[in-house]
Amino acid sequence: MKKAKKMELKKPVRVSLSRQVLTAMESMIRSGKWKVGDRIPAEPELARAFSVSHNTIREALQSLIHMGMLEARPGDGTYVMASDRFAVAVSNRLKESELPQILEARLALEKEIARLAAVKRTEEDLKELESSLRDCHARVRPGIEDDMLFHAAVARATHNPVLAELYNVVVRHVQENLEGLLEEKQYDAGAMKLHDDLLDAIRKRDADTAENIIVKIVEFDTVSIGGQFRA
Q: From the CA atom positions of the chain, what is the Rg in Å?
């Protein structure tokens, strides 16, 4: 008769308070309670909320800052810079990439996003897209933010959260690094007509036309910054 194998049990690993707080903060960022661009509560408020010491909060914050998910701005506060570690990794990769590579990646993403948005969009998505495009025409926000928000809304209309998040990382990189080059021409009549046409194609669920228009929009941006790129 064979002897029963002895069960090997791993000793439970105790998780430090700072690691527990870090995990909780990451969860708040991933869930959207703390959104990218938000200033998070100050240390004293966080210490009270988590019922831990200031040192524990500080240790958790420093870890998230080191990861690139948070950024401390002296005299101002601590801000959310990325929605998760994946976003940080992609963002760091973009920083090491050349402009033509970034434009190629953006085009590949936007072509598929435009097609999926045209197929999967809902009536609620259309309302959000229409509102975002009205803001573009009115230039409600500074710089190219209204334009970026419109494209982000198109990405959300795909109902693919992975694709939408990946696009958000790319578009934030474009906004942060190319905004000065794009701002003057981003809202001229030709650019806005393309955006109107894109919304119309999505409204009609015309995936082929939506893809063709997004190619023209990316080409327009490329000409605006003086790059050379073939779609």
A: 22
CB 91 within 8 A of CB 99: no
Burial class (CB in 10 A: 0-12, 13-18, 19+), 86: middle
**Which structure tokens are listed for 207?**
């995936």
Report how far residue 79's alpha carbon sits from residue 212's, in angstroms, rounded to the nearest whole number.
37
pTM for the whole structure: 0.69
pLDDT digits (tens, 9 = 90+) for 39-62: 999 999 999 999 999 999 999 999
Asked if 140 contacts 150 with a C-beta cutoff of 8 angstroms, the reply is no
Going 211 to 222 to 36 to 137, the CA torsion angle's sign is negative
Strand, coil or helix: 139: coil
Full DSSP string of 1-48: -PPPPPPP-PPPPPPPHHHHHHHHHHHHHHHTSS-TTPBPPPHHHHHH
The contacts found for 175-182 with CB under 8 angstroms, 24 or more apart, are: 175/143, 175/144, 175/145, 175/148, 178/225, 179/143, 179/144, 181/224, 181/225, 181/226, 182/144, 182/221, 182/224, 182/225
For residues 163 and 167, give the distance between their C-alpha atoms in angstroms, rounded to a whole number. 6
d(CA 200, CA 217): 14
What would the pLDDT profile of 101-152 be if each residue is shown by its tens digit?
887 888 889 999 999 999 999 999 999 999 999 999 998 887 778 888 899 9
